[in-house]
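Deliverable D5.2: sample structural annotation.
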Amino acid sequence: MMVSAQIDAHLPRLTKAERRVAAVVADDPEAVAFGTVADVARQAGASGATVVRLAAKLGFEGFVDLQAAVRDEMARRLRPASERIRRPAPGDVLGTALAVEIANVAATLEAVDRAGFETAVGLLSGTGAGRVLVLSGDASSGVASLFADELSMLRPGVALVDGSEVRVARLLADVGPSDVVVVLDLARYDRAVLDAAGRAAAAGATLVALTDSALSPLSSAAAVSFTASVTGAGPFDSHVGLLALANALLAGVAARLRRSATDRLDRVESAWRTAAALTDA
């Protein structure tokens, strides 16, 4: 049973202090996996004894045992699809997928720092000389392409940076301090994306990262970083949480640029009607 499921099962019997510790375990597994009893206690506003007591209530022999379980879950999530497909398939695939994806969306959006979100929306809404460039790893390219397309319907100066390393280098050749680079990638990280993001940051561009862990190499270089839950019901990582995060950012930009975005969408709709490009039939 996953640690989060064990917490849910024992939740009615936890004290208020234990619930605060449980929230840290569920919401910030990196803090448990790489921290100490004192670190977790300080983050939860509880005592070290409470941390140890929670571990015991969840069925672990102590904090070290709980920490090992959290690390094991993180390691399983990072294993390649070629290994994960060898796990026994769940009996109810649809039911499992429903539960996993609902949990991914909830975990992703509940973990968003509100101040960081407002900062990112402000950066993405800027309509001055700066551009928004969207850079992505191969696996998340679909989410990146959709995000860039829809953001470009809300404001000008949006470009998807994709293709070969030669093309990516050309598109980022004149990136500068007025530009925002939104970079999406999940473990195992695309080295070319990390290098390109590093060059953009070195040129003064502001990075907004959508990734899968606070320990992601993208997080350390980004001005604002968001973490998506990517647990898959099958052998592959899920991008549903990442898409929900991208949709939330788009909704924030639309609200921030309501008047100009409305005018821009009206022009797009008019162009589609003129070209008879779409049909409801």
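Annotation notes: Residues 93-110 form the longest helix (18 residues). The chain has two domains: 3-78, 109-275.
The annotation will be released with the project's public dataset once the embargo ends.
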